[in-house]
Amino acid sequence: MGKEKIVIPLDVDSSEKAVDLVKKLKDDVGVFKVGLELINIAGLDIFDKVKAAGADKIFYDCKLHDIPNTVAGASRAIAKMGIWLFNVHCAGGFAMMKAAKDAADESADKLGIAPPKVIGVTILTSIDQSILNDQMHVQGTVADQVVHFAKLTKEAGLDGVVASPHEIELIRKACGEDFMIVTPGVRPAGSEIGDQKRVMTPGEAVRKGADYLVIGRPIVKADDPVAAARAIACEMN
Question: Partner of 108 for a Cys bridge, out of 15, 115, 188, 192, CB 3.0 to 4.6 A?
Answer without folding.
Answer: 115
